[in-house]
Amino acid sequence: MKLVILDRDGVINYDSAQFIKSPDEWKPIPGSLEAIAQLNQAGYRIALATNQSGIGRGLFDMATLNAIHDKMHRALALAGGRIDALFYCPHAAEANCSCRKPKPGMIEEIARRFGTDLDGVPNVGDSLRDLQAGMPLGALPMLVRTGKGEKTLAEGNLPEGTRVFADLAAAAKYIISLQE
């Protein structure tokens, strides 16, 4: 199975230090929706893995998160793309759960649900914790320079073998080229 794991904020849509707390605040990064559609057309399934601690912090509720994701799914459909599975951690950092990235719980759940080994599966994020979450399962770390990506790159300490791309569109072109 061809699979790609994506983070949401800073990869698909613009991020905010104050969290994305409403559908109005969710705005796609230019080219990101089309990149997902291109991956879909090349036979890739897309799993989204996103920390959403705003729920645990009481900044927004599940109905709002669902409305944000509904907007994302509708925008993707208009671009000819889809996300096959969406995983999120609603916990604040203090909860010390196993699903909040950089811990691998969410990524392990993706492997279970898709019934596949994640060795070499592209794991695209804009923060170090996005990349670290996939490392225990052998996922291929890919950093985009959008969102927190420039800051993450400047701070260094990226996992060995991390590929760096300007944005999701550039990462998608590379991923698709791997199968040619």
Please explain how this structure is put together.
Helices cover 37% and strands 16% of the residues. The longest helix is centred in the middle third of the chain and has 17 residues. It has a six-stranded parallel sheet with strand order 3-2-1-4-5-6, sandwiched between helices. It starts with a strand and ends with a helix. With 180 residues, it is an alpha/beta fold.
Provide a concise account of the structure shown.
It is built from 7 helices and 6 strands, in the order E-H-E-H-H-E-H-E-H-E-H-E-H.
Characteristic terms for this protein:
single chain; 180 residues; alpha/beta; six-stranded parallel β-sheet
Helices, by number, come to 7
Low-confidence stretches: none
**What is the β-strand count?**
6
Please compute the radius of gyration using only Cα atoms. 15 Å
H/E series: EHEHHEHEHEHEH
Percent helix: 25-40%
Structural class call reads alpha/beta
The largest β sheet comes out as:
6 strands, parallel
From the structure provided, what is the oligomeric state, counting identical versus distinct chains? Answer: single chain
- Cα separation of the termini: 16 Å
Mean pLDDT, all residues: 97
Which term fits the overall shape?
globular
Strand arrangement in the largest pleated sheet: 3-2-1-4-5-6
Residue fraction in strands: 15-25%
